[in-house]
Amino acid sequence: MTTPTNDAVSGIKPPANLQINSEISTNWKKWSQQFEWFATAIQLDKKPAEVQAATFMAVIGPDAIEIYDGFNLNETDKVNIKIIKQKFTEYFAPKTNISFERYIFYKIEQNEDEPFNDFMTRIKTQAIKCDFGSLLDEMLKDKIVFGIKSTQIREKLLTEDELTLTKAINICKTSEQASKQLDEFEGKNKTEKVFTVKSKNSKEAQNEKFDCRRCGTNHGRKECPAFNKPCTKCNRNGHFAHMCRTKKSLNTKKKNKVHALEESSDSEEEFYIGSISADGEKSWKEELEVDGVKFKVKLDTGAECNVLPKYILDQTKATLKQSRTRNLTCYSENEITVLGEVELMCKLRDEWVKILFKVIEERHQPILGRKSCKQLGLVARIKSLKTREDIFEGLGCYKGYEYDIDLIENPKLEIKPSRRIPHAIREEVKQELDRMVKLDVIKPETEPTPAQTD
Fold it and tell me: Nearest to residue 91, comparing CAs of 21, 24, 18?
């Protein structure tokens, strides 16, 4: 038997160049493992040290050269592949707090209407940061069982004998597909939800009276006498002056509004949200992008702060911070609990801006409040309209402008009889018709005529 030479394995292709992007930590771990396999296959450890280092740098790709130059290695370390790999590991995958990453993993739950594949991708991505080792499949399986939204699917998983990760994934995918097919079979009409926050659903609860913070009286739901009434203290609608929470000082009149890009108060705050709803194309919306995640926000000038549901925040890398705001108050006096706040670097119309959001648990439509809409130039207040008197000529003629109208060839037009005019207003109608004839707007016809298209 002869010993294989290096030429026998020289046909093995090296891994592709390392992709340096936002997922570099994960990419580095995968690429490093591929290179180890490649090095073993070509018996790289039997070659001279300088060849090993040169092979590594040739395979990692040109994007890593500037990073390598920044290591400032001496001549000895430049030919030591172990030191080079260690430097790249420290650069691309800095040491993380494993306990915290596992805490995030344990908290993950499937969101409402979130496809199982998206849920599985989220827990796999987080699990990579947790260093579970040989327990990875077991931890993923348990996370599926306890994190899945459907109680029916969870029951199937718990009653399955010798449940494995593969079995759990297959059960979830099959159940999800069967549910979609059943919905289509039964012809369910899935209408868009209108998220109106209500604290109680029963008729008794809706008729229950409470002490109103806007008018100062005790009344039932939607019976507030201050509704749409202006406050003589702050000139805002919706409350009386003796219930106004606006604080005045010598130099400033500080209102309890959101500062979309910055805040300076240390006291507890409560913001008013005119409406949180999903009304489709009728509302004004803009698309934002954060960490590659795109979502629509509603431009709501009736809202005093920016609102972001937690399920969108969970898809980004941002960390939730404590907020002085405890609740968001809707028009109907219902309150939404604020989990915290987060300042996100958002891409808006090819520009990057920082926006401060109040984060809530409910899966409502994300909104941008009045202050942010104005600061970002999305809405503007028009105080006056300028008119020009020299742009028209005669009656309804716009000078210096031609309009191209597309006409249908050989149209079938419906001819209807003239409408009867009540005797009491016949004289007024005749006077108006005579006036329009004199202005050459219309012309009289005494007999039926065919429909004209020219």
Answer: 24
Give the chain's domains with CATH numbers.
6-92 (no CATH), 98-186 (1.10.1200), 269-375 (2.40.70.10)
Mean pLDDT of 91-103: 77
For residue 76, pLDDT beyond 60: yes
Over pLDDT 90: what percentage of the chain?
A: 16
Q: pTM of the prediction?
A: 0.31
pLDDT band at 211 (very low <50, low <70, confident <90, very high): confident
